Model the fold of this input.
Amino acid sequence: MLKHAAPVEEEEQVPEEKDNAPPFGSLEWIYYWSEFEGSLPTPIDVSITGSLKYWCPDLEWYNFDVYPHKVKLTNTGYTVLLGAKWRAERPYLLGGPFSEKHVFSQVHFHWGSNMMEGSEHRVDKRIHPAEMQVTFFKSEYMTQEEALRHRDGVVIVCYLIKYGVNPDERLQWVVEGFARIQESQTSTRIGPYPMSHLFPMFFEDYFLYWGSLNTVKGENYTVRWLVPRATLCASFEQMKEFRKLWNPWDEPNLRNFRPLQERQDRHVFFISPHWSQYNSLLPIPRVPEPSIAILSPAYKERPWLLPPQNADLIPQENENEEDENENNKII
Done:
């Protein structure tokens, strides 16, 4: 349960709770609705209008500044899949609507045949050229496959990709690898760069809802969907690179997004609103925002596990301790 849940505004009405429902304002209350809404179809339109404002602790991003050992980009024939491996602890999310650690799994993209379509989710009923979906799973389940079997196992963070006049540097290092994976079922190495070079990180101001994930094998899983108000952007030239990728039939993969579904009566939580609520999506910042990633306790206790590129992340207190030890030896 949240220790400090903000009071509900007077104009908002708290939804009627069932007899066995946890108290409103708790994390358990969010999880409770998965039982009733987890099988509803996705994607949907989300908006500040009609959503339920709900306060959670700050979302914390651990190890997203740590360089991976390798980053692999794959054209599956249906989407572009980005996976990464670390020699030690991988990035993970904690806090926010999560009661436990959720580790990074993979990234994939959706796009359309032109700049007027491509995103799976709509925000304020607007469609954008593409969408980047990042999958995380609950660490206790060990693998994404096992986590999908549990209602609380998987969360997908869905970044809308707007049109931008200039190329988005966060996407560019990924898009540059597309020329090497034009054919279906081909892979290449890119970077490697830390995931903070790709993900706009946020600790508040995002939408959350429950819905199903259907696979090509006909399997149906319950997933939490997070749609942040922070976005990416892509230029016309960057989007053209997506449409050059081939599907399994050696033809350009022009449309790989799912059709929009009805929201029905499900809850759409507007988590910890903060910024201007004139539009549901935030404007693209003119200057890159500083990273809010946190170094995990495991790396702080064992800084030698950090890759050479992250020498600047070694905690200062460890350096001071080493200096003190050297001074003691001299004395």
Q: What stands out?
A: The first strand starts at residue 45 and ends at 46. The helical segments are 27-32, 34-37, 144-147, 169-175, 236-243, 297-301, 316-330. The first helix runs from residue 27 to 32.
